[in-house]
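Recall the central idea of this unit: under ordinary conditions, the amino acid sequence of a chain determines the structure it adopts. In this exercise we apply that idea directly, starting from the sequence alone.
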Amino acid sequence: MNIIYAPLRVLLSAWSLSALAWSQVQTEGRPPATKAVWLDELNLANAVIALNRRFHGYYVCRGRSCQASSQFPANHEGLTKMKTTVLFTCYLACALCARVAAAEKLVVVENGRAMAARYAGASWEEGSGGVATEGTGRFLLAAKNPDAGDFRVTARLKLARLGGTAAAFVINDSHVGFDGRGNRFFTEGSLFGGAVRLLGAADEWVQPEVAFTFEAVRGQDVTRFLINDHEICRIEKWHGPVMRIGFRPWRNRITIERFEVQGNLIDPPPLAELTGDPLFSSGHVQLPVVDISQETNRQVVIAAGTETIYQGHPTTLLLSDGKTMFWVWTIGHGGPCGPMARSDDGGLRWQRLDDTLPKGFCGHHNCPSLYRMVDPAGTERLWVFSAEPNMPRIMSEDRGKTWSEMKPLGFPCVMTFSSVVRLKDGGYAGLYHRKGPKGLQVLQSNTADGGLTWSEPRVVAEVEGKDPCEPFAFRSPDGNELCCLMRENTHKRVSLMMFSQDEAKTWSQPVDTPWGLTGDRHAGVRAPDGRLVIAFRDKAPGSPTGGHFVAWVGSYDDIRQGKPGQCRVKLLHGYHEWDCGYPGMEVLPDGTIVATTYIKYHPGKEKNSVVSTRFTMKDIDRLLAAVPGAGIPAGATQAR
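Accordingly, the structure predicted from this sequence is:
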């Protein structure tokens, strides 16, 4: 049954004002006994018991501390009014408390002892000061959670230090943080719209080694989060059950003196094993993995590595006929360009085109990218851009039969355009990255004539303390927004993402992606059923497929709201600890997805090869159904 707040607040306000007036009833020359009266509405039943004592004394309350006082109104008439009004107040309070009494209270921590707690990651220490621990991957959670409906969580705790430690309150897959970047409160997770959001200054309310009170209260369609009675954030119209609730120290030491949960309590789901250092603990413990990496019947070797030849960094292009496909790649890691291959059957068989390309193409270096663009007059051009020297390029106007060397764009870069996305006005936005004065920067240049000329580049992403690079931009299902995923090259946490709602004229501040999208050099397609399939080199902290060629499967809403997604797919196994990725991703008319990468395909002395693997979403759903705990594939029913 719901806990009723508003009527009690009104009632208690009247009671408090009456008590304050009664305190003015005094004998001549005697000062008032109290200046304020306070009562916690959820502890009203205890107050009623106290007020039924004999009236030879009464309680003076300041803040949350109450003590008996020998100073009471000597005026008999005032005392009589006091007795009558208090008794009437108690009568009404008891009637209202009948509903409050239906809410169960769970004492999780009391007097430094864990009474009803669960631990994830590692146990906490018990002592006279409270239950304490420090370090990432450690959680203290309540043994029962509030179900749908109103609830209240109260705790008293302290932090050992401040300085962007990410110590936080945990609720479902989300956090209310006590010490974020710049010593500010923060929120993160699906309950708060996904990515990290910095709030007000934390050091105004939280100090090192000073205990503070934290509350989470849901009632009347609002969930409020308070520190020392100060609201730091809220959630509107969230009524769902709580799957986990508790605290984490992360890069801090946290001591919990008291922790209580009140509401309609239910048993929680089993705790999954927590490993690594993901942004959200739910990010990888709830994300099943489908492994097709050993199914060699799906795989096609485009260019085999040898003991002396390293095949690296491919990209692909599927033409509008749905079957003609091109590959370009380099010899060596970031080495010279030159190889190109073509397939006329969707990637099953191929032929090399190296000898038909301009001689100067072999002098281009580092990660060529392949795109098709159409100018306002309808002329189709195929382009290959490379990084060095000065972003050189070659072009074809006859669907890849012949190629011409074009003037370099002259844009200094680490990588050339890793993404080109078409805009509603018929132009294209190209995104790439370079070294800036404080780290890596993502830049954008536009073309309005099908790739012949490009605008002066401008910086669209630069993040202090992080290195955004290798952007991958794509359009939302409704067509009204662009999303850009970016590799984060410090690899301290997860990847980055930003959004544009004005056709790439402006971009939002980059924020963290969901854990499952953490990787290097994203590239993706939209499957026929609407799901996104995005491939990359896996760099997610604690991932069981770290360093291999993987794909994330989920909806656009999963990305936008910071949700984990549906699953991950291990596409190919690499026999090097990290050297793979830089994928080409194409979807054929029959729904077959062709994912291409460079990878150390065999153990031993052979260097990297260019390899593709093929699958459909029906294949993934069938295999996913056999993964323990994966459940019914939810992505297939999500909005297209």
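The helical segments are 6-22, 44-51, 76-100, 282-285, 556-560, 617-625.
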